[in-house]
Amino acid sequence: MLIIVIYLVRRTRFRPHFGVLTMVLLYLFCAARLLLPLEFPYTVIVSDSVVYPRIYSFLTRKPEPITHLPVGLFLCAIWLFGAVFLLIHYALQYRKAIRAARQARPWDSRTASLLSEIRRQTGRTIKVRGRTAANIESAFGVGVLRRYIILPDKTYTDAELHYILLHEYTHFLNHDTAVKLLVTLYCIIFWWNPVVYLLQKDLEQTLELKCDRAIAQTLNAQERTAYLRAILSAMKQGCTQQPVPQPSTALFRAEADKAMRERFTAVLACAEQPNGRTTSAVLIGSFAVLLALSYAVLPQPAFEPPAEPDSSSTVYFNDENAYLKQSADGRYWLCIDGHKPYELTEGDVQFYLEHSVFKYIRETEQ
After folding, report:
1. How far, in Å, CA of 115 to CA of 161, rounded?
2. What is the C-alpha separation between 149 and 107, in angstroms, rounded?
3. Which of 56-65, 170-179, 225-234 has the least mean pLDDT?
């Protein structure tokens, strides 16, 4: 439910504020709910005697022909295998992207000087390495701890290069690569739940709109036009549209015609954004309310009590009205006055003798 709420909020005017805070709160919410299964006085217990008992019985049974493990433990093993596989795949993909960034050619002095100017312009300094690669079509930023801005090996004017670098640098200021990493890790952990993939849906566009609007707020109308012209020029130069590494923030994507129109409209309109502190307060308050509501209802499986035994079919015996005997063929019998003998196993006999129900076994020839 919380993921669905986040997805719907991202489609409103709060979209530019989807970031690290949102994902950290989501992780904390899940951790609190999983580790603290509390029952408060206001909690309403909802008993289910149809669905939950069947689920419980299914998870605890042991399908002998397949495995001796309970079904629940077997499913946990499948979940763990899937999560580890996806994590390794993502780690290799991320490592490949970072390795490619390290091996690319360092920037020339002109580009490095423009980045220094952008640092002064934003008033925030973070360590970012610059590289130029010949096999890409779009500028992109990659890395969470070691950050790289990768530029294609193309010719840009000073204005175009300034705005391209400003765009990618702003992504790092917004911690957008960390957001993508957290979203990906969340989807890896809960890969079996189709709802979590709503977090990834439109994530790229959400981060791009957030970045564009953050930049537009610092520019006048003429500079906004120049900013959009620089993005458009970069798109026109990208002809083959080779994909950029997945764990990155790109200036544009190959399939982004409709998305680009949305970005251009947002920059030109440059609507007032909600106050940052107010938005954070609303976000934290919403998470707190949802966390409290999640404890309000507690579904529990309900089982019917076992039926009382029929006293008319119950047979009571002890060493005064019954005895054990072993026939000549080695079989054991429980003999009760007024009833037919009951055949016993050796385990049954051993149980009766160990618990002093009978003192000895009578031997007979029949």
Report:
1. 9
2. 10
3. 56-65
Contacts of 82 (CB under 8 A, 6+ apart): 191, 192
- Dihedral pair phi/psi, residue 256, rounded to 5°: -105, 35
* Helix or strand (DSSP H, E) at 233: helix 221-237
| Three-state DSSP state, 333 | strand
Say yes or no to pLDDT of 335 above 80. yes
Tell me what pLDDT residue 228 has: 85
- Classify residue 139 as exposed, middle or buried by CB count within 10 Å of its CB (0-12, 13-18, 19+): buried
How many Cβ atoms sit within 10 Å of the Cβ of residue 210? 23
Nearest by Cα to 100 from 145, 129, 131, 126: 131
DSSP reduced 3-state for 185: helix
Report yes or no: 247 and 184 within 8 Å, Cβ to Cβ.
yes
| Phi (first) and psi of residue 15, to 5 degrees | -55, -40
CA pair distance 244, 135, nearest whole angstrom: 10
Beta pairing class for 361-363 and 342-344: unpaired
DSSP secondary structure letters along 39-102 = --TTPEEEEESSHHHHHHHHHH---TTT-SS-HHHHHHHHHHHHHHHHHHHHHHHHHHHHHHHH
State the pLDDT at residue 78: 92
Please identify which residue in the block is written with the tokens 């002095």.
109
